[in-house]
Amino acid sequence: MSPDGLALIGPLGLETVRKFWNVDAVGGLTLGADPISYAIAMASASTATPLRAFTVRKEAKSHGTGQLVEGPFMPGDAVVIIEDVITTGGSALRAITAIEAAGGRVQGVLALVDREEGGREAIEEAGFPVQSLTRASEIIAMMNSTVA
Predict the structure, then answer these.
(1) Which DSSP symbol is given to 34?
(2) What is the C-alpha separation between 79 and 37, in angstroms, rounded?
(3) Which residue among 47, 54, 77, 123 has its CA within the 20 to 30 Å range from the CA of 29?
(4) pLDDT per position as a tens digit, 13-41
(5) Quick check: pTM over 0.85?
(6) What share of the chain is helix, strand, coil (3-state, %, to 5)?
(7) What domains are defined for the chain?
(8) Any residues with CB less than 8 A from the CB of 104 and at least 6 apart, and which?
(9) Could you give the CA distance from residue 33 to residue 69 in angstroms, rounded to a whole number?
């Protein structure tokens, strides 16, 4: 959530989304996906096709709109589900279920980090392509090379 992190992740995330998908919006399960989704939407603001960001609540509130999906999401939107970290894939699959129930068309999942613990495979087995900005093994390798 730091300014430097958002400034780095927004453009990288946008570049990856645009490389693999043609979508209207990005978002995922609160709270992990929120800052990443917002950074990507902000990075897209000055482009010809800005992306909208949404959030998926863990459960609907009994007051307010009472919806699971909040923000400028619209039924029929093509979306990419955003994850901060993929471990089991459960959060992404939960967000996918909520978006499809609200009339969205999930095109895939973008994660900041794939922990390489089976989550990617679970999401792909459910029929959704996954991209990650980095993997746990890459982070560990970089850490080990700076220690040596």
Answers:
(1) H
(2) 11
(3) 47
(4) 999 999 999 999 999 999 999 999 999 99
(5) yes
(6) 40, 25, 35
(7) 3-147 (3.40.50.2020)
(8) 25, 69, 73, 75, 76, 77, 78, 79
(9) 13
